[in-house]
Every structure is written in structure tokens, then in C-alpha cells.
Amino acid sequence: MGLKRALIRGLTARLTPHDSRLCYALAVPSTLELSIWTDADHAGQTAALVAALADRLTPIAIGGPRGAAVHDLATSLQLTAHDDARQMLVDHPPAFLLLATAAPPDTDALRLALSQGARIVALEPIVADFDGFNRLLPEREGPADVQASLRGDAITHLPAFLRSPGYRSAADPAGALGHLRSLRMTSLGRGRMSLWARLLDAWMTLLELTDLPLSIDASLVGSQAQ
Fold first, then answer.
1. Is pLDDT at 221 greater than 70 in this prediction?
2. Where is average pLDDT lowest: 71-80, 87-96, 135-144, 163-172?
């Protein structure tokens, strides 16, 4: 339920009255058009999300690496599975593109989605570093612009602590903390978030609360650390 709530918030954030298509989607949730790019490891999770949000969105296209899992998911949604992300976006330009995969489409396909006005919602990081974002968004310059994109301007990573009900309902969480000398974030949970996704969530949370840190210490404990 936490991921469902986060996805709803991510899909409906920053909509304006001037965007008739998306505002109509809010009034009639089932008309919110969504294209999906997934893989065998995330097909089950994707199916559960689509089922949980059936009253709020309408999948119009689905694709991913060729395989039974993606094909079966597409069949269950009465869609044809695509194995070419760029062609899928050309044929079915969406309002939102859900990336439920650890291996997202190439930069050209993602830039096409953004040029179509689509909002990208990713369950895993889609680039490895700031240079990757600069290639994805060449009109942006410098870390500040990259951070703005990461915070939800055009690309939303979910689930995210900054989009959780507790954080969003706080009146002024940053102001309540006062002057910060050090910060610590612990990520716990039984969800399917990868270690890489948890690391990005921690990084974006810290950047929301303070400037670029001078030093970073990270550790992994539990069964994955063995």
C-alpha cells in the first residue's frame, strides 16, 4: 500500500489547471494514460501496481526485453508487448511513463518521452551519475538543475521518503531541524526496492535537507552484507 500511495502522489504531482489532459485525468482517474517499460524481475510488481491503481490509470502500452513474463503481463492487459522502447513511445505517446526495471531504455528513448511531455516515474535509478542526467537533459546546467529534475520536475523516483505521508504532512521539517552539522538516514523495509534505489532515496533526502555534504560514510548491514 505504501508504494501504491507513493505512485499516486508521484503521478498527480505538479499538475496545473492549464494542462487539460492531466486535469481531466484527475477528475476522471481511469483516463490517466500510462505506458510501461518493465522486465521479468519486475513484471509481478508491475502487475500488482496496475491492479491496485485500476481505477486511476489506463495502460496504453507495455514493453520490455523479450520474454514470457513481459508477454504474459501484456496479454493480461490486452496489449501487445513491445521490445523497442522508442517505437512504443512513437506509436503510443503517454502522459506518464512507468519504468519498472533495473535496465531502463536508452537515453534517446527517454529523451523522446520527455520531449513528448511525458512525466517519467521510475522504481529504480535510471542513470548512474550526474553526467547521465546531463545527457538525458542537455538543456540543464550544473548540479542544481540536476537536483531539480531528481526532485520531480520531469522525473520522479518512487517510492521516496520525501513523498511519504509523514514527511509531506510536516509543516516545516527542514526548519524544525535548525542548523545541521551531520545527518544520518536509515532505510528499512521489506519492499522490492534495490540497494541502489535505497541509496538514491537516501541521497535525495539528504540533499533536500542540506547542501552538498563534505564527507559521506555509508554502510550495509543484514543478510545482504554477508
1. no
2. 135-144
Give the sheet arrangement for strand 119-122, strand by strand.
81-82, 58-63, 33-38, 96-100, 119-122, 155-157
Nearest by Cα to 9 from 60, 56, 61, 59: 56
Give the pTM.
0.74
**For the chain, where are the E strands, in sequence order?**
33-38, 58-63, 81-82, 96-100, 119-122, 155-157
SS3 track for 145-203: HHHHHHCCCCEEECCCHHHCHHHHHCCCHHHHHCCCCCCCCCCCCCCCCCHHHHHHHHH
Q: What 3-state class would DSSP assign to 60?
A: strand
Task: Read off the C-alpha cell for 67.
Answer: 520474454
Query: How many Cβ atoms sit within 10 Å of the Cβ of residue 114?
Result: 16
Higher per-residue pLDDT: 203 or 92: 92
Residue 6 phi/psi, 5-degree rounding, is -65, -40
pLDDT of 37 strictly over 80: yes
Is residue 156 over pLDDT 90? no
Of the candidates 61, 62, 46, the residue with the CA atom closest to the CA atom of residue 4? 46
63 vs 195, more confident: 63
Q: How many residues does the chain have?
A: 226
Per the DSSP assignment, residues forming a β-bridge with 33 are 58
Q: What is the dihedral of CA 50, 53, 56, 62, to 10 degrees?
A: -10
